[in-house]
Automatic annotation (TrEMBL):
<keyword id="KW-1133">Transmembrane helix</keyword>
<feature type="domain" description="PI-PLC Y-box">
    <location>
        <begin position="41"/>
        <end position="104"/>
    </location>
</feature>
<keyword id="KW-0812">Transmembrane</keyword>
<keyword id="KW-0472">Membrane</keyword>
<feature type="transmembrane region" description="Helical">
    <location>
        <begin position="174"/>
        <end position="194"/>
    </location>
</feature>
<dbReference type="InterPro" id="IPR001711">
    <property type="entry name" value="PLipase_C_Pinositol-sp_Y"/>
</dbReference>
<protein>
    <recommendedName>
        <fullName>PI-PLC Y-box domain-containing protein</fullName>
    </recommendedName>
</protein>
Length: 344
């Protein structure tokens, strides 16, 4: 009978390239971060009615990271309206963009149910996303055509227009949505690469042993998951001392019943409790390399009675699951059956 051996050489079931997909959701976030690093250029203009005021020169840059975004806000008195002419001039003074913005600002007092307060609404802002034909220096020309109160009378006050220019503005909600969608795609890829094999078999037993016979073998590894639980035969709570390890035995035989592997190891036992209920549990995974495809029988056994802390814990159930054709993202200890070729 062959004893289990651990193959320390690189396993062909080691699949690394899907891990590179974890960088995919980071790309939209990186673009968003690079855009946020840039500080916007601030502009302030005091515009009397009927006069055309030029801003300080600024630079608009064309590039792969987003596009320039220009935002203007006119500070007008409450309960007034404005008509604002805005022109974008290039370095030669030629108008490359011309538009008119109608704005307003309203405020008032409300009273309801014995309570009162004030309200205020306005629409005196302008935002433009642009893509210049080439990078260069530009200026804004701003002129107030009409500044009227709520009665339609002209207000003589000059208007303060504040602006901000960001050369690399991006659509943040769209980038965040892209990152979330990319993460979902990556999770599907990792699930298909590492969690789905050619077949899966599960056996649950009320005893301390379980066995599965199945057709397995081929590229990848065979993974065995063992989960078991012991409980006390009485209602007295345990003393609470940590339990020691338990002996786990694995036997593998081929289609003719010949033993191909016998492995015995110690597994960690955990003490768990919930609402006064106490139990001991074991969870262990083993990876095997099968020399060829065929019919194999896998049998695992744990102690029927586990003695810990002066108590005799009795097995409640044991579950054995076998998954064939599993790939791994990191090296794992591999049990090799008798007759397996070294280095496979």
């Amino acid at each position: 009978m062959a004893a289990a051996s651990l193959d320390g050489r690189r396993d062909p079931a080691l699949l690394l390239w899907p891990l590179a997909s974890l960088l995919l959701p980071l790309l939209p976030l990186l673009v968003l971060l690079l855009s946020a690093v840039e500080w916007p250029r601030r502009l302030v203009m005091v515009v009397p009615e009927g006069e055309r005021v030029l801003s300080a020169p600024f630079e608009l840059r064309d590039g792969w990271l987003g596009g320039p975004r220009l935002a203007l806000t006119a500070e007008i008195p409450p309960n007034s309206s404005i008509e604002l002419d805005v022109a974008l001039l290039d370095a030669t003074g030629r108008t490359v963009l011309d538009l008119t913005k109608d704005g307003w600002r309203a405020s008032g007092v409300w009273a309801e149910g014995g309570e009162s307060g004030t309200w205020q609404e306005d629409d005196a802002g302008l935002a433009l996303a642009m893509r210049p034909g080439q990078s260069g220096r530009f200026q804004l020309a701003v002129q107030v055509q009409d500044l009227l109160d709520e009665a339609g009378r002209t207000l003589p006050n000059p208007v303060v227009v504040r602006g901000s220019i960001r050369n690399h503005s991006v659509d943040a909600p769209l980038l965040l949505f892209t990152a979330v969608l990319s993460l979902a795609v990556v999770q599907v890829l990792l699930l298909a690469s590492y969690r789905i094999g050619r077949g899966r078999w599960v056996q649950r037993s009320q005893e301390a042993s379980a066995a599965i016979r199945c057709e397995a073998g081929g590229p990848g590894l065979l993974r065995l998951d063992v989960v078991a639980r012991w409980e006390l035969p009485h209602d007295n709570p345990p003393l609470g001392q940590p339990p020691g390890p338990a002996a786990l035995e694995l036997r593998v035989s081929d289609a003719h019943g010949r033993p191909r592997l016998q492995h015995r190891g110690m597994v960690v036992v955990a003490h768990r409790s919930d609402d006064g209920d106490h139990w001991l549990s074991v969870r262990q995974s083993l990876h095997l390399r099968l020399p060829e495809r065929g019919s194999y029988r896998f049998r695992v056994e744990l102690p029927e009675v586990f003695r810990a802390d002066g108590d005799a814990w009795e097995i409640e159930w044991l579950r054995l699951s076998v998954e064939d054709g599993r790939m791994t993202a990191w090296p794992v200890p591999v049990l090799t059956l008798a007759g397996a070729e070294e280095g496979r």
